[in-house]
Each structure stands twice: as structure tokens, then as C-alpha cells.
Amino acid sequence: MDEEVELIQMETEEKMQRSIKHLKSELARIRAGRANINMFDGIMVDYYGSPTPLNQVSNINAPDARTLAIQPWEKTLIDAIEKAIMAANLGITPQNNGEIIRINIPMLTEERRRDLVKQVKNEGENAKIAIRNIRRDSKDQLKKLLREGLSEDIQKDAEETLQEMTDQFIKEVDDIIEVKEKDIMTV
Known about the structure:
Layout: H1 2-28, E1 44-47, E2 50-53, E3 58-64, E4 67-72, H2 78-87, E5 94-96, E6 101-104, H3 110-147, H4 152-185
Helix pairs in contact: 1-3, 1-4, 3-4
């Protein structure tokens, strides 16, 4: 039974780590007023009939803090890349010169910064909900083990450990959100 409790705890920690990783990837897509190539993660380009990630059909770089440059590996993809960027609704307009797509990142207005902070807080809340759901599922597994013969003391200790783990990960979410908020609100 002890091995099963340890397994539940390890799986719980692993799932909570994945929630943090997901939060970080979602926050990387939210632009903070500077050129960031991560904002194109998840954009799919129609590449000969199949959706392909933008970073697999082009080279993306940031020549300066306000500009992104996308160099497609095939010139025929320029129109498809432009369409994919426009469809992603990032609030930016691509400009191409026939060989390269340039994107100028506009300064964020105070109102837009507040909207982005709300979006960041929403992502943080989603991560916290996911972590609490993971805790609940693990507690349910422990209760099932209790019915199968696990001692109450071991179950209570395991639940305390789960709660400590949950508190730790929720604090980590709060710290990540705080850093991203400062990043967005810094002019």
C-alpha cells in the first residue's frame, strides 16, 4: 500500500509540474510590448494542404526590440504565412517585401496593458483550478485505497503531503503571474 501512496504522490507532482509548464507556455504567447518569437507558437500555416507550425516552415527572429522578421524557407509560403498570422488575431499586421515578412510591434496602450494583465490573471486562475483538480483526484484515489485497507494515519499523512504540494504549486503560479504582470505593466 505504501508504494501505491508514493506512486499517487509522484503522479500528482508530475501532473502539477505539467500545469506549471502549460501556464508558462500560455504566458509566453501573451506579448508584453516587446518583440517575442514565442508569440507565434501555435500558429499553423497551410503547407501543401497540411497545417504545419510556423516555426517549421520559416526562420523567425527579432532583429530589434520592436520588430520581428519571418524568413520563409520557400517564397511561395509568404501569402500562407501572412494569412495564418492575420487569422491568429494577435493584433499585429504583417508586411512583406516578397522575400521576408516584417512585423512591427506597436507600443501597448495603458488600456491594452490592463486587458493583457486580466488575460494573464485568467491563465493563472486556470492553472490554479487545474492544480486543485489534480489534488482532488489524488485525494479520491487515496480514499479508494482507504476502503481497500490503507490505514487512516497513512491516508491523512498523504493528504497533508498533497495539500503542501498544492500550496507550493499555487504559490509558484502566483509568482509566475506576478512576474508577467510586472513585465506587461513596465513601459
